Amino acid sequence: MEVKKRNKHLGIMILIGFLLIVIGIISYIIINYNDDQAEVKKRMDIVLNTYDTFKTDVDSFNTIRDNIYNEVLQDMYYETLKNNDTRFKELFNSYKKSLEVVDKDYKKIEDKCINVLHPNADVNNKCEAMIVGYEEVVNTYISDVESYNKNITSYNSFLKETNSTDTSLEEIKLERDYLDVNGDREYNGKREVKEEIESNDNNQENGVTPDE
């Protein structure tokens, strides 16, 4: 009888121990699942909260870009380039600062959007919009600076060719490379300006350097 009772108690203890292990495993899974869900929600909230700010800052960037196109890059003549060098450099400085604001927005969502699939379609769409938008503004900025610098190079060459005593102009320092965030090799924002630069070359021999 004593042996049977001991075996019975031992069996109960083993069963209780097994149940505790199962409960512990289930609790661990539930806690981790809840933590994962909370982390996913946190990432999605950051994307959603950043989107409106990103869009506003890109709109500001585009407004400055339009001003630069109308005032600096469109129908550019050597005389205009020379007489407005300080003003044009100030405009490009504002342009650069507006891009740096977009940089900060993008850094907030970069690791939450690149190669990340969220369980919410709206969040995924906003991620895609910000990735494409960022690539476009960066490449547009680079192309515009390169176009302006090309005009400066053309102007300085003109001075040498004509033995002019006018002071040569400085190019804008560019510390960025063209961006291809999603690896599609399209470089959004670059192609349009590249074609405009080509049209620029065809008009320089007349002493006129139109960019767009």
Number of strands: 0
Mean pLDDT: 80
The fraction of residues assigned to DSSP E strands is under 5%
Q: Which outline best applies?
A: rod-shaped
Which parts are unreliable, with pLDDT below 50 for 5 consecutive residues or more? 31-35, 191-212
Over all CA atoms, what is the radius of gyration? 30 Å
Oligomeric composition of the shown chains: single chain
Alpha-beta content class: mainly alpha
Largest sheet: none
Q: Helical amount among residues, as a percent range?
A: over 70%
Summarize the structure.
Helix content is 75%, strand content 0%. By secondary structure, the chain is mostly helical.
Furnish the topology, listing elements before pairings.
Blueprint: H1 2-73, H2 78-83, H3 85-113, H4 121-161, H5 191-201
Helix pairs in contact: 1-3, 1-4, 3-4, 4-5
What does this structure look like?
The protein is mainly α. Helices cover 75% and strands 0% of the residues. The chain is built from five helices and no strands. Helix 3 runs antiparallel to helix 4 (121-161). The longest helix is centred in the first third of the chain and has 72 residues, at 2-73. Residues 31-35 and 191-212 have low confidence and may be disordered.
